[in-house]
UniProtKB/TrEMBL annotation, chain A:
SMART domains: REC (SM00448). NCBIfam families: PRK13435.1-4 (NF009973). InterPro entries: Bact_response_regulator (IPR050595), CheY-like_superfamily (IPR011006), Sig_transdc_resp-reg_receiver (IPR001789). Coiled coil: none annotated. This is Response regulatory domain-containing protein.
Automatic annotation (TrEMBL), chain B:
Pfam families: HATPase_c (PF02518), HisKA_2 (PF07568), PAS_9 (PF13426). Residues 172-362 form the Histidine kinase domain. The keyword Nucleotide-binding applies. SUPFAM superfamilies: ATPase domain of HSP90 chaperone/DNA topoisomerase II/histidine kinase, PYP-like sensor domain (PAS domain). Residues 15-64 form the PAS domain. Gene3D superfamilies: Histidine kinase-like ATPase, C-terminal domain, PAS domain. SMART domains: HATPase_c (SM00387), PAC (SM00086), PAS (SM00091). PANTHER family: ETHYLENE RESPONSE SENSOR PROTEIN, TWO-COMPONENT SYSTEM SENSOR PROTEIN. It comes from Methylobacterium iners. The gene is lov_1. It is an enzyme of class 2 (transferase). The keyword DNA-binding does not apply. The lineage of its organism: Bacteria, Pseudomonadati, Pseudomonadota, Alphaproteobacteria, Hyphomicrobiales. Keywords: ATP-binding, Kinase, Nucleotide-binding, Phosphoprotein, Transferase, Virulence. It catalyses: ATP + protein L-histidine = ADP + protein N-phospho-L-histidine. This is histidine kinase.
Amino acid sequence: MTGVIPDKAIDGALRILVVEDEALIALELECLLDDLGHVTIGVVGNSQEAIALGRSAAPDVALVDIHLIDGPTGIEVARALSADQRTTVVFMTANSKRIPPDFAGAFGVIAKPYSERAVANALHYVAERRAGRTPPPEGLDGFRLAAMPEGETEFGAEGTGPDLRH
Amino acid sequence: MRSSAVNPGSAAEVATEAFAAAFSASSTPMVLTDPSKHDNPIVWANDAFLALTGYDRHEIEGRNCRMLQGEASDPTTIRQIRDSISAETQLEVELFNYRKDGSRFWNAMTITPVRDEAGNLRYYFAAQADMTEKHRLETALKGANDDLERQVQARTADLLAALEQKTALLHEVDHRVKNNLQVISSLMLLKARRTPEGEARDALQGMAERIGALSTAHRMLYSEGDVTRFNLQDFAADFLSDLTAGVDTDRMAINAEIDAVAVSAAMAAPLALMMHELATNALRHAFPDNREGRLTISARRRDGGLNIRIEDDGVGISAGVPNPAGFGRSLVDMVVRQLRGTIDWDEHGPGTRVEIKIPLDAATLSGSTS
C-alpha cells in the first residue's frame, strides 16, 4: 500500500538517524524515509558510532534498534541520544520485551516486523507532536508510545506521550 | 504368686492358677510390685520380662523398677510414674530403659494399681512392650520424608530453572523470527523499488504485502498471556486498519464484524494469509474504474467452527479481467484445505460472496473468547 504513504509527509521533513545493524533493513528503511520526504542523516550499526553521530548531528529523530553489532546496546544509545532535547528517540525492534519501564528516554516503539505504513504513521505522529499539536492516536498500530510520566494513560484525553515541544 | 486367700481345690483357686500360668507364659513382658513393702519392690515377673531386660529372676526380685532407668530416661516421664503411683492411678507412658548389658530400649508400659475386694491397694501391675523398632521406623520415616522433601525442592528448583531457560529461548526464537520477517519484507520492497513499473513490480509488492500479513499475525503471537492461542479479533483490528489505509474511504466502505475467538497459534499464519488474499483481491479487482462499493468481512463462531464471510458489491469475478485473481484464489483454496475447511464462492452477483467454514479444535470451542 505504498501509494498512500507520501501524503503523510506533508508536515515537513525530519532529519533522521537510523541505528540498525541489519544492512537490508537499514537500506529499505532509508528508501522508505526518502519516499516519505524525510532526510536520513546517517545509518550506523554499533552503539559508539550511533552515540557519536547522534551527539554531533543532533537529528530530529533517531530510529534505534535494540540489538546492534555490539550487543543489546540500543538501550544505551536511546538514553544517550534522548538526553539531547532536540532529538526524539523511537525504538524499532523485534524485541520490545527488552525495553526498560522508563523506555530509556525514548518516545515510543515501532514493533518489528513493521509495515511501511506503521513507520509512516509513527513519524507523522512524532512530527505533529514536535510541532506542538496533538494528533488523534488512532491508526498507531505497530507503534506504541512510552508510558506516561504522571500516571496519564497511554491514550489520554489530553496529549499522549512525552512533551516534544522545545 | 501367693494364693492363700482362696481355698485349695476350689473353682477360684483353679482360676487363679490358670491366670498365673497364662501370665507367666505370656509373651508380653509383665511385672508385679508390692507397694506395701519398702520401696515398692518387684515381687513377680514373667519370662518375657526377663528376656526383655536380660536379668535373671533373682537379680530383680525385691528391687524397685527404677533399676531399669538410666541417663537417657526422661526425668519428666519418671516424675509422671512416681506421681501416678502415689496417686494410685493407671498410667501409660514410654520411657528409655536399660538392659542388664547396658543397651537401652524404648519401653512402653501400662501401670495399673491392683486392689483387693475391699478396695485396698495390693499391687502394681505393669505390662511392657519394646517400642525400639517402632521408634527406629518413625525416625527412619521422618528421615525419608525430610529427604523426599529435599528432593522435591531440588527438583522444583531444576524445573523452574528449565522453565526460565525455555522462556528465554522462546523469546530469542520469537525475536529472530520477527527480525527475519523484517529482513524478507525489506528485501522484497528493495527489489520492488528497483523494478520498473509493471507486472514484475506488482508481483513483488504483492508478495511483500503477503509477508506483511504474516508479520502482523506473528506480531500478535507471544505478545501476551497464552502463547498457544492466537486472537483473531486483535489480528483483524490491525489487519483492517492496514486495509482501510490503502483505500479511498469516500469511494469504498469496509465493514467488519469479527467475533472474539482465540484459535490455536498454528492457525494464525494460514488464517492471516487467507483473509489478506480475499480482502485485497476484492479491493483490487471488484471495483475497477473508481467504482464505488462496499466490502463486508465477518468472522463468527458457529456450530463448532469458524464461519468467515467476505462479501463485496463489485463487478464480480466473472466480469473482471480474465483470471484476475488466479494466484490469490488458488492460495485461498489451498489454505482452506490445510485448515480442513470448506469454501464456497458465490459469483452470481451482484458482487462476490465467499463463505468459508473452518472446524475449530476442542480447546478453542470450550475455551476463551477473549
